[in-house]
Design brief:
heterodimer, A: alpha/beta, eight-stranded parallel β-barrel, 11 strands, B: alpha/beta, eight-stranded mixed beta sheet
Chain lengths: 387, 257
């Protein structure tokens, strides 16, 4: 299994007490609560953590894109990926992902990703996302055309990467008389494309299509939900007449390791609950603007609304398989069990969450790297061995 | 009673209600559609031939794939007017429907005898931000729509069914998410509206705040403005009696001249 370090770069220094009466840390939390001096320290600390993934033996590092929020400080993951491209030599660099519909000119995504791919000598994994609902409020972009723009932007980017230029691209949303990429990507025909998602039929149908076979990455969800969507991907592939390989499936999950189970739970409790119950919280209308999801999906989500908005303790989240937390032995067994059950070849470890301190993050990463990582990297399914 | 039927315009089926005799009055609804014929429409039907369509994408009307923006809705309504041979129409447009009314009248001014614009969307001014209807919970939306607490409570207790709500919200977003509730190219041509125009506003409108009424009054020089105190975004509901009296008088006077 490939194991990557995935960083959300939360604004861990937010004054959580002073901001506790705000409904959410997304969209309209006043930016007077942001301190650039504190952020300078955080950016450098977080990049140190990501860079340390290489000597620790991880297979890759990963960053993501979110806008106008204390949840994550990367409105442009491209900036962080560029910094990482120069400071690492071996690991894959995954952008998970760039929010295509939010771009007025998705050709800029094709260009910027190609730059990083060339700069890193072909180590880029290119993630494509739509951006979350809140970002359609942030950008004033019409959510009812989100899917349509995503698909068209994808077509434009892949054509720009693969089709000899110059050529004209005529779309419904995007039009270019001259598509002629300089630089072209290092990897041929193009960097691997991953599709991170919270799970939707539309996304899975699209990613699993034989023309694409993109790696589907289930983001922070209970293990049961992860299982449901990974299975759905495999079933969809089967309905298209092929068998999905494990490398087409991934899971992003917070992980915390300490000497003992008890200590791990004690140390992870507050930062995790802050992450789950404060940083991820937002009103329903902000999360799901009209058209962002199909109305059938929306009705399903509305029916489950109570359980989605309920606050969770770390202990409950561990039981639900939303987070993996404990001694190295517990964490290794737990990942191995999930792997045996779900069979995914990509594990995205979120080893920093909420306001977990630098010291605890480093301790957890080192223990994980020493006592868990080699064993889980060795996990390989039978079908993979035969190939 | 209103005749309640469906009408097919070039392949698009819409819910269509009509009642009364006299000058033709076309009512163009706002973001929440017209699930029920409201009392003010019954009152108007005593003096006029009142036509109440549900726009494509709302209520029980079709959701055609060609509907992508306000311009599409405008041309649909011109098709509808052609099919029904409507040549001298008094339009009443509420909110989104007010925006639609202005767009329609700009394209074929001679077919529109008068416009009554209620809390109309359509333009954007720097002095006032429209309410963010897409960020409000149903409870907050009710509080922002009406001033009268009894109407707020009624709206909260009597929501539309889920399917209709989601459908209406979707189409409303399709038409008005961005640019938010307006067409940036509209304001500069509003001087071309030369028919009589009556603006009707609630003083406490939190969706299209009162400065929008004053801005429209300037842009449409012959327009009249009536502002109701203690009233939100829908004076035709909240100040029904006063509204009916005002509009009946306005349209009758135009029709007689």
């Amino acid at each position: 299994m490939k194991v990557m370090l995935f960083h959300l770069m939360s604004y861990a220094d937010l004054d959580f007490e002073a901001t506790k009466d705000y409904e959410t840390v997304w969209l309209n939390l006043p930016n007077r609560f942001f301190d650039p001096v504190k952020c300078n320290a955080l950016y450098n600390r977080y990049l140190d953590e990501l860079e340390s993934a290489e000597p620790l033996g991880f297979d890759g590092v990963a960053v993501n894109e979110h806008h106008q929020t204390a949840y994550g400080l990367m409105p442009s993951p491209i900036v962080m990926a560029s910094a990482l491209a120069r400071r690492t030599k071996r690991v894959k660099i995954a952008i998970l992902g760039s929010a295509l519909p939010l771009r007025e000119h998705p050709l800029t995504v094709a260009e910027e990703h190609a730059m990083i791919d060339v700069l890193s000598g072909g180590r880029l994994i290119s993630g494509f996302v739509r951006g979350i609902g809140a970002e359609y409020h942030t950008f004033g972009l019409n959510p009812t055309i989100s899917h349509d723009r995503f698909h068209e932007a994808h077509d434009l980017i892949v054509q720009a990467w693969t089709k000899p230029g110059p050529f004209a691209f005529t779309g419904h949303h995007y039009n270019h008389e001259y598509v002629n990429l300089w630089p072209r990507p290092f990897q041929q025909p193009h960097p691997p494309i991953w599709v991170p998602s919270q799970g939707s039929k539309e996304t899975i149908d699209w990613a699993a299509h034989p023309d694409r076979r993109y790696t589907y990455l289930q983001t922070f969800s209970p293990a049961k939900v992860v299982g449901k969507y990974l299975k759905s991907y495999r079933d969809t592939a089967e309905s298209f007449g092929y068998e999905a390989s494990d490398s087409q499936l991934g899971w992003a999950v917070p992980i915390y390791v300490a000497d003992t189970d008890e200590r791990a739970r004690q140390e992870a409790k507050k930062p995790f609950e802050l992450f789950r119950n404060r940083l991820l919280k937002m009103p329903f209308e902000m999360l799901l603007p009209p058209g962002y999801s199909s109305r059938a999906s929306l009705k399903g989500i509305m029916a489950a609304k109570a359980s989605l908005t309920q606050e969770l303790t770390l202990e409950t989240a561990i039981d639900m398989g939303m987070v993996i937390c404990g001694s190295p032995e517990t964490v290794k067994d737990s990942i191995t069990d999930y792997w045996n059950d779900l069979k995914f070849d990509n594990l995205l470890t979120m080893m920093h969450f909420g306001n977990l301190s630098q010291e605890l993050t480093q301790n957890s990463m080192q223990l994980f790297a020493k006592k868990v990582l080699p064993q889980i990297q060795a996990l390989q399914s039978q079908s993979m061995v035969e190939v | 009673m209103f005749e309640d039927t469906f009408l097919t315009i070039k392949g698009c089926k819409i819910r269509f209600r009509r009642h009364g005799t006299g000058p033709v009055v076309l009512y163009l609804h706002g973001a929440n559609g017209v699930p029920k014929v409201q009392p003010f429409l019954f009152e108007l039907a005593k003096s006029f031939d009142v036509i109440v369509p549900e726009h494509p994408g709302f209520g029980e009307s079709d959701e055609p794939s060609w509907l992508e923006n306000m311009q599409d809705l405008v041309y649909f309504y011109l098709d509808l007017m052609d099919q029904l041979h409507l040549e001298h129409v008094h339009v009443i447009g509420s909110s989104l429907g007010g925006w639609l009314a202005m767009e329609l009248a700009l394209r074929q001014p001679s077919r529109f005898s008068s416009l009554t614009l209620i809390g109309a969307a359509g333009i954007r001014i720097p002095e006032a931000q429209p309410g963010d209807i897409f960020l409000w919970s149903p409870e907050k939306a009710a509080q922002k729509t009406f001033k009268n607490p009894a109407l707020v409570a009624w709206a909260i207790d009597n929501p539309l069914d889920q399917d209709t709500t989601l459908k209406n919200r979707h189409t409303c977003a399709l038409l008005a998410w961005a640019p938010r509730l307006h067409n940036p190219m509209l304001a500069k041509w509003l001087h071309r509206l030369t028919m009589p125009v009556q603006l009707v506003w609630g003083e406490d409108d939190e969706i299209m705040p009162l400065p929008y009424a004053h801005a429209l009054q300037k842009l449409i020089s012959q327009s009249l403005l009536s502002v109701y105190p203690n009233c939100g975004h829908l004076p035709q509901v909240e100040k029904s009696e006063e509204f009916v009296e005002l509009v009946t008088h306005f349209i009758s006077k135009v029709a007689q001249s």
